[in-house]
Amino acid sequence: MKKLLSFFSALSVGICSSLCFLCVTNAGAFESKGNLVILGDSISSGYGLSADEYNYGQILGEYLDYDVDNFAVSGLTTSGLVDKLNEQEVKDSVTEADIIVVSIGGNDFINSARDVFSAKFGDVGSLTDFHEIFNIISKDTNTALAVLGSLNVKEFRTACNIAIENITNISNTISSLNPDAIVVFQNIYDPFQINQEKYDSYINGNATNKLGFLGIKRAVYYNICTQNTYEKLPASFNVRLKDAVGSARIADVYGAFTSDEINEGDLTLPYGHTSYFTNVFSSQDRDFHPNQKGHLEIASAVLEELDINPAVNRTMRAVYNKLSDSEKGAYPEQRAGIMKSYADVLSPIAKGDCTDDNIIDAADASAVLALYSEDASSNQELEIDKNLFVAIDVNGDNIIDAADASTILAYYAKEAANENPIWDELI
Predict the structure, then answer these.
(1) Domain count along the chain
(2) How far apart (Å, rounded) are the C-alpha atoms in residues 55 and 41?
(3) Taking a C-beta distance cutoff of 8 angstroms, is the pair 136, 144 a contact?
(4) Where are the alpha helices (DSSP H) in 20-105?
């Protein structure tokens, strides 16, 4: 047994020393199955994500094995997208697309609010920042509340009319360019749908914040987000979107970020999960753009609308696996099962079985070494079947490196010693 363990140790050292310089992240130059085009604003562009994070377009592209053209521009309005669809590069890409996903409309309302607040308070900067919003309200609460009331009954209704008219044109333009493409528009989530803990911590203890929260939530909920209709109120953006997009589909991002029953009797009561899917109460700038979990959830909502069966994938799996145990535990209950069904799909090849012989042994670790030592210095993109990649990426980080080979060896050592190894305990 000592000789066997000594062999494992020596082989592990050899693998680590041979592969320490090599970290394969681009393995899997798969033949594209189609073309995905992303259109829209900062949500689609991945605003706020770090360099090592993935926007929902990247997640979807890898999931579907599609080439991705992302033409999203932070700050883009519906009028801006109407113009962008006249650009030749965009028109050519839309014409060749199999699937087109659109996120647009939010900036129409943000710009409308900024114009009204700026008229009263001067340049107000970013209105995607909760700090800025509540700072404005605290400066002159009565004036700010009057502005919020005006947004609710006037400016947001005007912005909604313009946005819906433009989206009708956008949908018609896309259809005329490519009548065969599957087109999915996203509805708008409510950035003020926060949970009880965040509400009590940041809103409920401050009377001014509470008044401001109620005022802006009323304007946003009734004019933009609600999917209900009311006898004495104009239909919201999300309700009108269904007719504006014609035969296109709608990914219910609003529902994905909400997931709870709505208490229309008291809109100050929290009922949503935006504080989980954005960094609105966890980052310094309190920005309510989607964080990495938010982009993961948007990708899930789009896959759900496309009626895509769960499949072996790398990027969504890696993003989900990177979540801490506490983050996974806090994933909104109504969506957690759906997310897991898409992200956590097992490869038909047994985990760690690089040789695909239904046995986990030193040969598998050696095969990993041989596979990635070949032409290592050439920096060529390695072509590896996705099922095999997922099987040998045993720690689920979307990288094949020495850690995977060493973990495979550790698994074999425990199995040879009849210790019933468990992968999760070795990672």
Answers:
(1) 2
(2) 12
(3) yes
(4) 42-45, 56-64, 78-84, 88-96
